[in-house]
Request: fold
Amino acid sequence: MRKINLLILSLILGLSSNIAQDIPNHISYHRIYEFLDEMANDGLIELNSAVKPYSQLFIAEKIQEIFSATESTNRKILSNRQLNELEYFLNEFALELDHFPKSPNHLYKNKLSIASILPPVINYKDDHFKARLTPILGMHITSNKNGRIEKKSFGAEFQGMIGKYCSIYGSLRDISHTGDGLLSKPTFLNDEPGYEYTVGTDFSDSRGGIKYSNDYLSVGLIKDNIIWGDNYHGSNIISGRVPSFPMIFLHVKPANWFELNYFHGWLVSNIIDSTYYYVQNDGKILYRPVNKFIAGNIMTFTPVKNLKLSVGNSIIYSERNVQPAFFIPIAFYKSMDHVMTKGLGVENQNSQLFFNISSRNIRHLHLFASVFADEVRFSRFLPDSPDKNPISYKVGANLTNFPLQNLSVVVEYTRSNILNYKHSIPSISWASNSYNLGHYLGDNAQEFYAALTFKPLRGLDFKLYYLDAKRGNEYEYIRHGEFNGVKSSVIDIISNPSLGDVIWSNQTIGLNATYEIFRNSYAVIKVEKSDIQSFDAASAPVFGEVRMTAQEAMDRFTPPLMQGNNITFTLGFNIGF
Reply:
């Protein structure tokens, strides 16, 4: 019966018109990303996983491609769980390929499809317009001996596909925290999403955009989260953790061997501009924030099938107006910046360079590595060089369905040197809303992460994971100064040993059980045994160091709920994100 259902769905998809609407599928819907990653590891599809989010049409086409691969051979190449996943996703992304979801749980009336059970999704389709309206609702309770935090969210999301080439979408999420403190703040060393709190502990996030797309390119104005860099536990290039920000976005794929992604974004500096202010009728002066912009590109080349080589660069700049040169999608922004600033003898902007390599050339195995370089001098790579480049690198592997079906193993290591992500001018640091754009641990840190995931049934995941994270001495980026009567510079700072004194550590082992009842609707049970400790630095203070006591380091880097040795339980359910 399942084969018949899959065949009917495939025939419907095959008869659909070739449309190119492009609505991002948010990075929080992790199960579809995990499924596509699994299928790519097993050799059924080819995937550039260094750049997320994927569009919903892209996802639907990949799902159809997986189905075609299963039908092209007489042998069974998917497990029962994978076949159920495939059937489920074919149906869930049906609207992207021009038909209503087929389910007895939907009511159909003229051009409307209304889900009769949770979540109450409303679909609309005619010859020129398709739309989807979904609710957002959720609650998570996190509790241990230190207290309890409740996180509640509600809102709605709208997605519309106009004609063949235009897409429009928007969503609003109101999130509130109650209980014993917060889990997310810019200085906390965890991978919780970043929030800019409005009133007390309330947070509101509105995402959306409008796009034009065809078979070769997509361009639009969006406000969303993006990830650059292969990873399974936090990218060290762009992690997607900061609050969503507006950007002009471009994606071009003119050939199978080349892909370009570019954006120009408006970040939040959280720094006051003392020369820019409003004056109220009562004479009160209201200062405005410093402007902060980012431009970045990443080009992916496929020299052989399943081998993806990506290279890109970016620049963060803080000017009164945007710089037209940084709207050029294929450019080396550091060179452009030097032309515009060096002749004046003024400080240039903050540029970055990054690389990513992803190989799925061994079936079932994904090997990946990424490098984020804030500043590079090749002489610093020599063993006898006292100062080291402020760079971050990540290496990892993901083995799926071998030697056992429905089982995957992830191993990942991340290391970031001193002053990586930082800058002497706070308004052009690698951050937005004071949250680091890159890896959640920041600079002078390392992490080892391993996870074993078992998926016995469609929608049901069990993940056993281990985390060992360490943070070394904290430094400010100071170009020139004096310490103990001696003239010093930033070179003295990056000449300190990487990590040095470990002033904070986190060893966590956890078990996470997730069941996706409906599309992007989860029930979650998680238990973690964590040991988060902080320590006094053993070495003498040095130039640029922010010397803290053990308790100061603990309060800076750790939510009050998670400090010390704990067994923490999380129970939650959410529809949407």
Notes: Residues 3-19 have pLDDT under 50 and may be disordered. The chain is about 15% helix and 45% strand. The first helix runs from residue 2 to 14. Helices lie at 2-14, 30-41, 56-71, 80-92, 333-341, 490-494, 550-557.
